[in-house]
Specification:
Layout lengths: L28 E2 L5 E2 L15 H12 L12
Antiparallel strand pairs: 1-2
C-alpha cells in the first residue's frame, strides 16, 4: 500500500533514423522538426519535414531589417 515509486529517468535518445529505422550511431542528423535521421533522409524534402523553413526565414528577415521611413523633403 505504501509503495514509493522510483523517480522516472528520461529515456535515452534512440540512435535510429526516424524514417527507415536504420541505426545511425554518431553520424545521425538532428532536424529542426525534432527527429533524428540518417544520411539519406537528413534533408527536409527527403523526410517530409513538417517544419516551415520559409516562414521562419521570412520572420527572421522581418525582425532583422525594420522598415526605414525617411522624412518628407519640403520643397522651396
Amino acid at each position: 500500500q505504501n509503495e514509493e515509486k522510483a523517480p522516472e529517468l528520461p529515456k535515452p535518445k534512440k540512435n535510429r533514423c526516424f524514417m527507415c529505422r536504420k541505426k545511425v550511431g554518431l553520424t545521425g542528423f538532428d532536424c529542426r522538426c525534432g527527429n533524428l535521421f540518417c544520411g539519406l533522409h537528413r534533408y527536409s524534402d527527403k523526410h517530409n519535414c513538417p517544419y516551415d523553413y520559409k516562414a521562419e526565414a521570412a520572420a527572421k528577415i522581418r525582425k532583422e531589417n525594420p522598415v526605414v521611413v525617411a522624412e518628407k523633403i519640403q520643397r522651396i
